[in-house]
Amino acid sequence: MRVAVVGGGSIGLAIAWRTAQGGAQVVVHDPEPGSGASRVAAGMIAPVTESHYGEAALTPFMAASADAWPGFARELEAASGLPVGLRDVPTVVVGIEDGDRAEVERQTELYRQTSRGVEVLNGRAARRVEPLLSHRVRSGVLALEDRAVDPRAVHAALLVAAERAGVRFALEAVDDLGALDADQVVIAAGCGSASFGLPVRPVRGVVLRLRAARDQAVPRTTVRGYVKGHSVYIVTRENGEVVIGATSDERGFDRTTGTAGAAHDLLRWSIELVPEIAEYHLDEVSVGFRPGTPDNLPLIGRLDARTIAATGHYRNGIALIPATTSAVDALLRGEDATGITAFDPARFGTRGVEGGPESAAPQSAHAERRFDAPSPRSFEGRVEPREEPFSGPPDTRVPGGSDSSSADAYEEES
């Protein structure tokens, strides 16, 4: 089977790699692989704290993908010889002012509906989990089963793994899907998928990358917080990089560079939560465009007998790599893809694609049969147990430095 994957972001590369492993001849079409949202993403694998009201249909798919990530990461590292920076750390969610704390409480009710590990914390307990939190934090919630990964490392590893599996790259844009020399076509072009008639819009976000000095303390968890009604996240890498984000606006592709105002807001909000951030070096301000859909759920499924959509992942592109890859792999093999009913592109009346062959409108028989429950065969493994990582005084150093925090400083009750 000859497969063309349109889009060289992490979703497209993962599909190409997996499909090539199965013996298909795969070509990835992208003029600049990895130049889109994959390069800017923070890399949170957050089946709990990425839950949002009105998106309940995504919860089981997110959970299955999160549970598959450790095995996926090990396989990718073995295939590429490169680390992907998977960190088995939880997320702590906190608020600064009364209104912020009320929002955390509201979100906690939603988090509990995921049926995953969630703990409510008082101020002292929150700072035991994350000692760098501000003393203004009076309470919080801990999502024990969240993780994080380095998206740039993942993309680099996927490039190598795909090439080693025999995937070829055509460094060109695709205007006409019908002209592609392929038996099957997968659209995984992020915001570029709109050019093929799919309902995908760009949602702009600014992300800051900071660098701690060798002996500086860095957050040991992923921190999400609300500051005067504004949300912000802080994600730490093993190498001392700290990623800060949360801004979003829907003004199309009007701006491709970060503004001083956006950077100022992100820094101000994050410093309110973690004062130590004020001492870090600002390395990079980057802008990404998340591919959103009208209902903020992805587009995963057949468009016609030849064409499959795997796009529109909005905030969760990195987190959903394993689950999306498994679903598309099943469709390409002519099997039922489980757990993707809610993501069928047909919910928007999408059948066939612009630039596709005129004869491709009828769907294959198996594409009509879908099921809601995640498949144990497709998503192997549950959350792997942790060895009580938060039972004692933490080490929040950048590797090679001395701990600049003291557990005694956080003993007072809030």
Walk me through what this model shows.
The structure is a single chain. The chain is of the alpha/beta class and 414 residues long. The relative contact order is 0.20. The N and C termini lie far apart (62 Å). It has an eight-stranded mixed beta sheet, sandwiched between helices. Strands 8-2-1-9-16-15 form a six-stranded mixed beta sheet, with helices on one face. It has helices spanning 10-21, 37-40, 59-80, 98-112, 123-129, 151-164, 260-273, 321-332; strands at residues 2-6, 25-29, 44-45, 91-95, 118-122, 139-143, 147-148, 168-170, 184-187, 201-211, 222-227, 230-236, 241-245, 281-292, 299-302, 307-311.
Give the structure's gist in a few sentences.
Helix content is 24%, strand content 21%.
Q: Layout of helices and strands, plus pairs?
A:
Blueprint (H helix, E strand, L loop, with lengths): L1 E5 L3 H12 L3 E5 L7 H4 L3 E2 L13 H22 L10 E5 L2 H15 L5 E5 H7 L9 E5 L3 E2 L2 H14 L3 E3 L13 E4 L13 E11 L10 E6 L2 E7 L4 E5 L14 H14 L7 E12 L6 E4 L4 E5 L9 H12 L82
Parallel strand pairs: 1-2, 1-9, 2-8, 4-11, 9-16
Antiparallel strand pairs: 3-7, 4-6, 5-6, 10-13, 10-14, 11-12, 12-13, 15-16
Helix pairs in contact: 1-6, 1-8, 3-6, 3-8
Based on Cα principal axes, name the global outline.
globular
Describe the biggest sheet?
8 strands, mixed
Q: What are the segments in which pLDDT stays under 50 over at least 5 consecutive residues?
A: 357-414
The SSE order reads EHEHEHEHEHEEHEEEEEEHEEEH
Helical segment tally?
8
Structural class: alpha/beta
Secondary structure: number of strands:
16
Give the proportion of residues in helices: 10-25%
Biggest sheet strand order reads 5-6-4-11-12-13-10-14
Cα-to-Cα separation, first versus last residue = 62 Å
Question: What percent strand?
Answer: 15-25%
Overall mean pLDDT stands at 85
Calculate Rg over CA atoms: 21 Å
